[in-house]
Amino acid sequence: RWSGHESDEQEETTRRRQPRDDPGSSSKLVFGTVDAERHKRLAATFGVTNAPYVALLRNDDWYDRATGVPHSPATRFGGYLAFAPTVEWLNARLGTNVHAKPIVADLSTETIDAYVADPNADVLVEFYAPWCGHCKQFAPFYHEIGAHFSADPRVKIARLDVDAHRVAADSYGVTGLPSLQLFPRGYKRRGLHFRGSERTPARIISFVKSPQVYLVEATVTDMPEWDCVLWLESRGVLARGEISGRFGLTPEHLRAFESVARDGTKGEGDEAAGDDTAGGKEAGDATSGGTTRRVSYEDIDPDADADDAARAMIAAAHRWAGRSRWLETMEILTCVSHTPALRRTGIGSSPAMWNFLDNAKLHVEDPSLAASGFADDSAGGEDGSDDGEDGGATGFAQAVAEA
Predict the structure, then answer these.
(1) Which whole-number Å values give the CA distances from 319 to 133, 323, 384, in the listed order?
(2) Which long-range contacts (CB under 8 A, 24 or more apart) does 262-270 make?
(3) Residues paired with residue 107 on neighbouring β-strands, in sequence order
(4) Is the pLDDT assigned to residue 393 strictly greater than 60?
(5) Are 107 and 158 in contact (CB under 8 A)?
(6) Contact assessment for residue 74 and residue 47, using Cβ atoms and an 8 Å cutoff
(7) What distances in angstroms separate CA 366 from CA 192, 211, 325, 390, one per listed residue?
(8) Per-residue confidence at 133, pLDDT binned at 50, 70, 90?
(9) Rg of the chain on CA atoms, in Å
């Protein structure tokens, strides 16, 4: 019972096996569990020295009925402890042909596009190669991830052999192995790359469940320059005109951006949807998979005080942080970091700003941190004032804004 691997295997097997596990039933295969800690003598009888210990006991063949002593050590399963490989092993031993739905789907060049595009599922894909040593080490952990989500129809776990399907690997920008990409519901334009230093099941499961950090970064990166400012103002994360107005952008720019986000109207002279115009001087809808209508940025004031605008944005981020609204905090700071005019300012390029951004990401990834070190400034935010300082990250953010 103390073994974590045992708990994972038992949970998955319990979810998947048929309920006919009564020894008195006519089922050909009966599943049973023994708590080796409580029944040490029984465990010793079978030669159990570690857990989990999965063994096959053949009917009328594994013990002497007169003495109750096993004829020989039980046939132990030595493979990876997951449902599908265990069933394959039992099929080979028993001569059966039970089909086990794989917990990790194998994709090909022909199937991957449709698979990841499923609008009703978050799809995680591992790109691997049979010769890759790191991939081999990671394989058992990836099966654990598949087992964790096996009962959740909203999550699909898959993998693709890059050696056998090089065209697909090139199409999805695979440059290292193993590579993990998440295609969450609502964002299928490209995969969100898992960049964690530790590829543990817990970290990757958390990534699948809460990909907000990666999603915000991808959304802002997809946008042409300055679009993130209009995006934040249109959603009330920044006050309307608070930043855009400093650079000569008018309410008409914001209304045009909002109409694109609302109805996806395509304007005159646009290229096909999906064409990436990032880096240009035009705005469009980056949240729907490509630019659909362009808004001219020719009127941007080159003499505007970008440093003052960056300070105002970081001050706004501070107010959101003071209310433990870390997603909005991160959105603002990510916009600063991806907008060249703002990033090149003293405050936008300062270590303090980047530390603030990292701190915001940490809180978004782990919401349990939000309750520590922060006062709930319900009167603050975009239209209120801050009632005080707590000496924690909020005070730090304010110091950044006032530096």
Answers:
(1) 47, 7, 9
(2) 264/288, 264/292, 265/292, 265/293, 266/292, 266/293, 267/292, 267/293, 267/294, 269/294, 270/294
(3) 160
(4) no
(5) yes
(6) yes
(7) 18, 11, 13, 20
(8) very high
(9) 28
Q: Average the pLDDT over 224-239 and give the result.
A: 92
> Who has greater pLDDT, 350 or 365?
350
Element (H, E) at 106: strand 105-107
Whether residue 135 contacts residue 128, with contact meaning beta carbons closer than 8 Å, is answered with: yes
How many angstroms from the chain centroid is the CA of residue 377?
A: 29
| pLDDT for the residue numbered 147 | 85
Phi, psi of 385 (to 5 degrees): -110, 160
Q: Are 99 and 107 in contact (CB under 8 A)?
A: no
Nearest one of 105, 100, 74, 104 to 86, comparing CA atoms: 100
Cβ atoms of 325 and 360 within 8 Å: the answer is no
Look up residue 29 and give its two tokens: 């295969």
Strand order in the sheet with 122-128: 105-107, 155-161, 122-128, 179-183, 192-193
Indicate if the pLDDT at residue 387 is higher than 70. Answer: no
Q: What is the pLDDT of residue 262?
A: 66
pLDDT at 120: 94
Give the CA-trace dihedral at 269, 274, 279, 284, to 10 degrees. Answer: 60
pTM for the whole structure: 0.58
Q: Report residue 327 as tokens.
A: 């997603």
Tell me which DSSP letter residue 247 carries.
G
Q: What are phi and psi of 393, to 5 degrees?
A: -65, -30
Q: Are 342 and 397 in contact (CB under 8 A)?
A: no
Q: Where are the beta strands (DSSP E) in 251-350?
A: 282-283, 295-296
